[in-house]
Amino acid sequence: MAATADAGRPTGDMGSSQESVARRDRAVVFGVRARGRLEETSVVALRALREIAETVVLLHPGSLSPESRAAVDGLVDRVVETDGEQFSSASYLGAVDEVRRVRADVREIVLTGDSWFGPVADLGGLMDRMGAGSADIWDVVPPAAPREAFPEEGFPAIVDRPWFFVAVRRRLFDSDAWARWWAESVPPGERERRVVEWAERNGFAHARAFDTAHLHPHDPALFAPEDLLDLEVPFVDRAVFTSYPPFLDRFAIIGSEIAEMMGERGYPLGVLRSSLSSCVPPKALNSILGLLSVLPEEAVDPDSGSSLSIAVVVHVGDVDEIDEILRRLHFLPPGASVFVTTTEGVTAARLERLLEAWAATNDHSYELRVTPQTPGRDMADFFVGCRDVIQSDAYDLVVKLHMRRAPWKTMNRLRYFRRYQLDNLLSSPGYVRNVLALFEREPELGVVFPPMIHIGYATMGRGWALLEPHAERLARRLGIRVPLDVISPLAPYGGMWIARPAAFRTLMKRRWTFADYGEKYERRFGHLAHLQERLISAGAGQAGYSCRTVMNFAHAEISHTALEYKVDQMFSTTRGWPVEQIRFLHRAGYTGYGGSVALARMYLRVNHPRVVDAIRPLYRLALRGHRVLAVGGRVASRLRRERGEKAREASS
């Protein structure tokens, strides 16, 4: 059995005179959890593993892309492409046999993979410490216990994942017992948890690098990551940054603080954010990493952004409000190129006079473009009317703004909406410098925009606006593999942002036309302008860029207090932690207006889900029939109205 050691010290017989396992005697097998783009974090890990092992084997589900092969060139000796879309622990056996075949002198094989981010401490020192012992098998921390999954919220259970960090020595992997154990029937994902118990039961010696029993009895890698970093454990469990946010919230696992600790130890946080942006739903990642920046009005560095080339795309549908946007454009560093779009010749003539007078008072240049009138409005003008601007290499950043009439909104709502959008992007000269500084500090930052507006608008809980099926189809068509948020996407609701043009590379794979925004294509794309708005963060993540939300202090005070009060009221009738309350409400389903049918449906969903599954086809048929009757009623009413109008015209 493994001996117990002091915190931060290896367990087992570390005082043995046995010669340390040197780099030339060690091999590493590194597994990747899923088919797709090899993450930059894995490249960082492989670079470190290359320093402590003579042989490195990469296990990858499916074919490895040419770009990924180029990224690991010189870091791995062999790439083994396995069957299936997901990692399987069974693939370790073949990799170990392959290493033994080509390296007869290997004395230690490390089985690991992209289940962690790191290293964040000296890996060589750890290997030297553990190499001096006589253990036949050693690991770093206890293997993870089965973790709670939230499939309905977009965080399904991981059946099998690459092992955390398990090193096996020649006496073990050369034994007949080793081959027999791999031939045993073991549930997927259970081998890592059972291998130590099996080895000790069969007479092999085990050691653990760090004593973590006092931190958490079962899963310290997830529930005590900060303590592990203080012990100089060189790895941070992937689940710390990829789990369901309300679950992390319950256990006060603060991803932003853990990432900061990693950065203090030299880990490249830009790589971490970029990699996570490609595999975690954007709104979830925004919460996990705390990617909201509340910025002051005074510039931290008055010269921030001065070296950036900036383009501004402004769609104008309401000339009467253009003065406010032109005033705020003065807050940008000198030399910005301003592209103003509008859809009417009369409006364009008025704008031309206003822009001439405005340009005489600043160092910005402008160009006025008249575009076709479409339902896409500002989004069509951005992706089609200013395609050349977005795809140009001349600009480091593009600022998108718009000003259009919204007669269906009350003046209070409209006034607050405009304040919210413009204040949180272009509040003052100093504030703008602080926003631009974010892009200078974080090369992987792709888009910044205000958080979801929730005062005066019922956006929360329904951010997809029934466009999720269209979003999934378009994402597949554009090659976006970033998981989409289930409830509401992280999106610039209101259509204003500051971004790197390269962050739109994925969304620009299709050459959009103004006709795509018309009614003819609604069946294919839904409301395309709203759809593009909601896919911006996922598209940026696919291109390797992260997103941030930004606010000034005034709106942060307004937003947080209002949000805190509303959430307090919403949770007042449900028991448990927020993660349990949310799960219960999601399981109950849509409440409608709380009528008897809705309440009966919710009762059945919570207490008799099998009954719901049985009657769901009949319910959908009845719902479809109700919708057909409703549409028929509206058509009949319109026809009666038209006949009445024709009769009145004939009688007159």
Radius of gyration: 29 Å
Through-space gap between termini: 102 Å
Q: Calculate the mean pLDDT score and round it.
A: 89
Tell me, briefly, the overall form.
globular
Strand content: 5-15%
Major sheet strand order = 10-17-15-16-14-11-12-13
Largest sheet entry: 8 strands, mixed
Poorly predicted parts: 1-19
CATH domain fold name of the largest domain: Spore Coat Polysaccharide Biosynthesis Protein SpsA, Chain A
Q: Which superfamily, in CATH terms, is the homologous superfamily of the largest domain?
A: Spore Coat Polysaccharide Biosynthesis Protein SpsA, Chain A
Broad structural category = alpha/beta
Please identify, by name, the CATH architecture of the largest domain. Answer: Alpha-Beta Complex
Helix-residue proportion:
40-55%
Question: What is the domain total for the residues?
Answer: 3
CATH class of the largest domain: Alpha Beta
Number of strands: 17
Per DSSP, the total helix count is 27
